[in-house]
Specification:
CATH topology: TIM Barrel
Structural class: alpha/beta
Largest sheet: 8 strands, parallel
Order of helices and strands: EHEHEHEHEEHEHEHH
Number of domains: 1
CATH superfamily: Aldolase class I
Bound molecules: D-xylitol-5-phosphate, zinc ion
Radius of gyration: 16 Å
Strand order of the largest sheet: 1-8-7-6-5-4-3-2
């Protein structure tokens, strides 16, 4: 069964408590939390204090997506703030394997995110060390962008690689996920769908999460 991870980036920052409760009471599986530094991506969001505050209210795992340079500097801080899964970008990690070990040493699941131009084949030598691959289906930085169709092929390639290596890596899709493309993504091998705009701009977010969850 695939998982749904609503993206807090599209929540109402003036009333995060309400949106956290909405996700708590929905069929969502994880909270997807986007941290941006204005250097790796052309946008700035929030950091450890906001995540630690949300953690007091949230009752589901925190999937924290770091869109920052030098992520290794902050791995311990995000563990302390309450991250259960920590994803670093391939493009921001000179020593990716070391970063993954560091994340795991702090008791978190370790993820790698790939920008749209980064081929999945670059992960073949370390796929057994990765708990989660986050395939970016938009250029990271903003919610509400259009899905890049080439992602479908990347999902298939990655699913094949995971299978070949007998790995247990989860495939997460981040960006432009809609009711329309969810079915094909799951069919091609996606295990986790991140959804920001699709959930939060809908009239009934709980119902939208339920519909995403029921996609077969
Ligand atoms: C984009 C973020 C995404 C974003 C997805 O850089 O990583 O998590 O919130 O938003 P939607 O689902 O609106 O494309
Ligand atoms: Zn994200």
């Amino acid at each position: 069964m695939h998982l749904i991870a609503p993206s807090i980036l599209s929540a109402n920052f003036l009333n995060l408590e309400k949106d956290i409760d909405m996700i708590n009471d929905s069929e969502a599986d994880w909270f997807h939390i986007d941290v941006m530094d204005g250097r790796f991506v052309p946008n700035i969001t929030f950091g450890m204090p906001v995540i630690a505050a949300m953690k007091k209210r949230a009752r589901k795992p925190f999937d924290v997506h770091l869109m920052i340079v030098e992520p290794e500097k902050y791995i311990a801080d995000f563990a302390n703030a309450g991250a259960d899964m920590l994803t670093v970008h391939y493009e921001a990690s000179t020593h990716l394997h070391r970063n993954l070990q560091l994340i795991k040493s702090h008791g978190m699941k370790a993820g790698v995110a790939l920008n749209p131009h980064t081929p999945v084949s670059l992960l073949s030598d370390i796929i057994n060390d990765i708990d989660l691959v986050c395939i970016m289906s938009v250029n990271p930085g903003f919610g509400g962008q259009k899905f890049i169709e080439q992602t479908m092929q990347k999902v298939r390639q990655l699913a094949h690689m995971i299978d070949e290596h007998g790995a247990h890596t989860q495939i997460e899709i981040d960006g432009g996920v809609t009711m329309e493309n969810a079915h094909a993504l799951i069919k091609n091998g996606a295990n986790v769908l991140v959804a920001g705009n699709t959930v939060f701009s809908s009239p009934d977010p709980v119902h939208t999460i339920q519909r995403l969850k029921q996609v077969v």
